[in-house]
Design goal:
The structure holds two protein chains of two kinds. Chain A is of the alpha+beta class. Chain A contains three helices and five strands; from the N terminus they run βαβαββαβ. By secondary structure, chain B is mainly β. Chain B has one domain: 7 Propeller (Methylamine Dehydrogenase, Chain H), CATH 2.130.10. In chain B, the strands form eight sheets. In chain B, strands 3-2-1-30 form a four-stranded antiparallel beta sheet, with no helix packed on it. Chain B is globular and about 50 Å long. Classes of the chains: A alpha+beta, B mainly beta. At the A-B interface, helix 1 of A face strand 6 of B.
């Protein structure tokens, strides 16, 4: 089970708490994680990545195990700590102005 | 008992203000979608409990929310606005061509005849339509074929901010884009053409009579006289008596003809309201006096409406979608400011009072007259 921490506004939109758990079939990557997240919570589509290009929105960042994974390739394996559920995958609304 | 519901979009959420027909005691609910920019909320004329809201954020992009109970509860509907085919390019600031990129929805205009049909005016400028209550959106690409490659963004972005539906002719729609101009379709959105003849912009375009490139700020129509259009342009108040074929200036005795919104009285097609702003360089009321101007002659002769409005040290702005009227008798007039005030007049503008004073900056005001 993979744990995902959502920023405040996306929690409100999806009607969930701070953290959600996802079951991912196959390898755990940014793409498979976001696919699963959007499948469970379709109202989140378009809020983290573009509908068509699937590129990460500019002010969205992905953190885990003390690292910024935002620029990792979408099909790169996520860290083991995330894949095993030991550590959460954190979706962050970047600090960007007041 | 009849009443009104005022739908207010702000920089940090939506608010709904309701009152009975006396319009003296107000109930204020919200914020809805707290922390998000609400560019526009609007209700269906067919089903007043059907509301649509444009919710957006620089972080999380665009959402569309829908309510079927007059704004008590909301549900997100489709937020996928994908341009038809290859989006193409438009004029950019440096003279190059720039790809069309969806940014946000500026305006939601429900159909006059079907609660499930709603139009969305977006940035970068295009018109979308949903026929299923917002569950899916399709572009009307014929608009961008009307010299779209020559359009370029205004200071607020290249936004389609005005959608006016003709109640006498379902196939006719007027829209306006900053900074491209006004456009009209006569075949329900299949094909469009610019309707900017007579607009002059001596200091904004090298060719003051160019077919596109005009910075139209808003357009208003009285439903009983759909061929008469009133326009607040970047500078100038304009009027057309032939559905936009030709425009003529009716700024008359206004202290400034720069401004953003324009509205028409619900029962008097010749009565028009504007809120003059000092200039394109100073977006606040002339002399620090917040004055709505009313013409009862279809333009040219304007009177200042000041009773109840601050007449000193007022430096707020009233944005293009933040002025609206109800259809009670007497007609109510409403506007919201960038300072967070929403003012109401229950006597056609003769006197004003704030409904609320301290909201976030107001982006839009719409009014529903409830049975």
């Amino acid at each position: 089970m993979i744990r995902v921490v959502l920023p405040y506004h996306l929690r409100t939109l999806a009607g969930v708490g701070r953290e959600v758990e996802l079951q991912i079939d196959g390898s755990a990557t940014q793409r498979s994680l976001l696919d699963a997240l959007e499948e469970h919570y379709p109202m989140l589509r378009g809020t983290m990545r573009d509908h068509v290009t699937l590129q990460r929105r500019g002010f969205i960042r992905f953190f885990a195990v003390g690292r910024d994974l935002s620029h990792e390739l979408p099909d790169a394996p996520l860290p083991d700590e995330v894949a095993t559920g030991a550590q959460p995958f954190i979706v962050v609304g970047a600090i960007a102005g007041g | 008992m009849s009443g009104v519901r005022v739908l207010v979009g702000t920089r940090k959420g939506a608010f709904i203000l309701t009152a009975d027909a006396k319009r003296e005691q107000w109930d204020i609910s919200g914020p809805y979608f707290a922390g998000w920019e609400i560019y526009h909320l609007n209700g269906s004329p067919v089903d007043p409990n059907r509301l649509y809201a444009s919710q957006s954020s620089g972080w999380f992009g665009q959402l569309i929310q829908r309510s079927d109970d007059g704004g008590k509860t909301w549900e997100p509907v489709d937020n996928k606005f994908v341009y038809d085919g290859v989006p193409g390019t438009h004029q950019w600031y440096d003279g190059t061509q720039h790809p069309w990129e969806f940014k946000r929805v500026w305006r939601l205009q429900p159909s006059l005849t079907d609660a499930d049909t709603v139009y969305a005016g977006v940035e970068d400028a295009a018109l979308f339509r949903s026929n299923d209550g917002g569950k899916s959106w399709q572009e009307l690409p014929g608009l961008r074929a009307a010299k779209g490659h020559l359009w370029q963004p205004g200071a607020g972005g290249m936004c389609l901010h005005t959608i006016v539906l003709d109640p006498s002719n379902p196939a006719r729609i007027f829209i306006a884009i900053s900074a491209a101009g006004a456009f009209r379709t006569d075949d329900a959105g299949e094909t469009w053409r610019p309707i900017n003849r007579g607009l002059r912009i001596d200091y904004e375009l090298p060719d003051a009579t160019a077919e596109v490139g005009h910075c139209v700020h808003s357009i208003a129509m009285h439903p009983a006289r759909p061929d008469v259009l009133y326009m607040q342009k970047h500078w100038d108040i304009m009027r057309s008596d032939d559905a936009g074929e030709m425009w003529h200036e009716v700024s008359g005795n206004l202290p400034s003809d720069f401004g953003f919104p324009i509205a028409v009285h619900a029962h008097e097609p010749n009565t028009v309201y504007v809120v003059p702003i000092k200039s394109d360089s100073e977006h606040f009321p002339p002399e620090g006096k917040l004055r709505v101007y009313r013409s009862r002659t279809g333009g040219n002769d304007w009177e200042a409406l000041t009773k109840g409005l601050p007449q000193s040290d007022c430096y707020v702005n009233v944005l293009r979608s933040a002025l609206a009227v109800d259809s009670l008798d007497a007609c109510g007039v409403y506007f919201g400011t960038t300072g967070g005030q929403v003012y109401a007049s229950a006597d056609s503008g003769d006197s004003w009072a704030p409904i609320v004073r301290d909201l976030p900056a107001v982006l839009s005001v719409e009014v529903q007259t409830l049975p």
